[in-house]
Specification:
There is one protein chain. This protein folds into two domains: 26-109 and 210-322, D-Maltodextrin-Binding Protein, domain 2 (3-Layer(aba) Sandwich); 112-203, 3-Layer(aba) Sandwich (D-Maltodextrin-Binding Protein, domain 2), CATH 3.40.190.10. 45% of the residues lie in helices and 21% in strands. The protein has 14 helices and eleven strands. It has helices at residues 2-25, 41-48, 51-54, 67-75, 86-94, 140-151, 169-175, 187-195, 218-223, 225-244, 246-256, 261-267, 279-294, 313-318; strands at residues 28-35, 57-64, 81-85, 99-108, 112-117, 132-135, 160-163, 180-184, 199-203, 210-217, 271-276. A six-stranded mixed sheet has the order 2-1-3-10-4-11, with helices on both faces.
């Protein structure tokens, strides 16, 4: 009986180990909505270099024109995860959407700006007063524009905002539907190219550092922790590739967005690629929420507890040192 018990115990232990091994070897299909944008480099390079596949993830990447559109895809079931900037995350959270951030993947300080038409009297930032400015409302460009205007001692009421999708801004500016546009790269460069020498550009260094993140719904993230951990492992490798081999990373990215190839090289040094969860993300979300409430862009009057919109566990399992959120 003792021998039988030992054999049964050994058999059970072997079965558990075998089940865990099979579980670890299983392939998880993950749909990721991403932008053909430098900030999404860790995810795009993880796909291009086979890092997802080697981590046991069959990743289906769907390219969207903006992080806001990518996040909407994840929130409405068209994707599982999305690459998205901090402002759309903020708006989703204050509007009660169950958004959950699993990591930030990049930060940048120089990829937003404003392009204006010289023939509409725009030569200096102060000359934006009274002008019609096209901007994708509810995005990081909207937040950047308000911060930029504030730096010029102007207020949002000193200009007229026109809601224009990012991919349509260059055309709207060229036709004269708007006097200026506020947007991120590569749409910023394409808008300037549409005007040539008739355009003027104002960059926003030291105005707004965009934080790019990977997020999904709370139900998806908590219900697919194994798949999310695999995605994060691949993204860490992707971030390393973006940092260590920028020429190759830009070459891959240019295949997705050929028009931005030159701009990618110019802007690359201003990007920092890191898969992490830092306290700065929550501080940024709170600052952006105050901006949204002040400008009546949301009906909410209380700051959300953004710890409810960040899932620390997947990254804490994969890379504990990368999580410094106070909780």
């Amino acid at each position: 009986m003792l021998v039988a018990s030992v054999l049964l115990g050994s058999s059970y232990a072997w079965s558990v180990r075998r089940a865990r091994a099979l579980d670890a070897d299983a392939v998880d299909t993950v749909r990721i909505a991403a932008t053909a944008y430098i900030g999404a480099c860790p995810i795009l390079m993880a796909q291009a270099n086979g890092y997802f596949a080697s981590e046991g993830v069959a990743a289906a990447i769907h390219v969207e024109p903006s992080g806001k559109a990518a996040l909407e895809g994840a929130l409405h079931g068209r994707a599982d995860l999305a690459t998205v900037a901090d402002v759309p995350i903020m708006f989703a959270a204050v509007n009660g959407e169950p958004v959950s951030v699993v990591a930030t993947i990049a930060t940048a300080e120089k990829d937003h700006g404003i392009v204006g038409r010289r023939d509409r009297g725009i030569a200096l930032p102060a000359s934006l007063k009274g002008k019609r400015i096209g901007v994708p409302l509810g995005t990081s460009a909207h937040f950047f524009l308000d911060a930029f205007l504030n730096r010029q001692t102007l207020s949002p009421t000193d200009v007229s905002l026109v809601s224009v999708p990012p991919e349509e801004l260059a055309g709207a500016l060229a036709r004269g539907d708007v006097d200026a546009v506020a947007v991120w790269q590569p749409f910023l460069s394409s808008s300037l190219a549409a005007l040539g020498s008739a355009g003027v550009v104002f960059h926003g260094e030291a105005v707004y550092d965009v934080v790019y993140a990977l997020a999904g719904t709370r139900d998806y993230v908590t219900g697919h922790s194994r798949a999310v951990q695999k995605v994060l492992r691949a993204a860490i490798r992707g971030a390393r590739f973006c940092n260590e081999t920028p020429d190759l990373a830009r070459e891959h990215l240019a295949k997705l967005a050929p028009a931005g190839a030159i701009t990618f090289k110019e802007l690359w040094p201003s990007y920092r690629f890191e898969v992490a969860l830092r306290q700065g993300l929550l501080i940024a979300l709170e600052d952006e929420t105050r901006w949204a409430m002040k400008n009546e862009l949301t009906a909410e009057t209380d700051l959300p507890n953004y710890l409810n919109n960040v899932d620390l566990e997947p990254l804490r399992v994969v890379a504990p040192a990368a999580v410094t959120v106070v909780h």
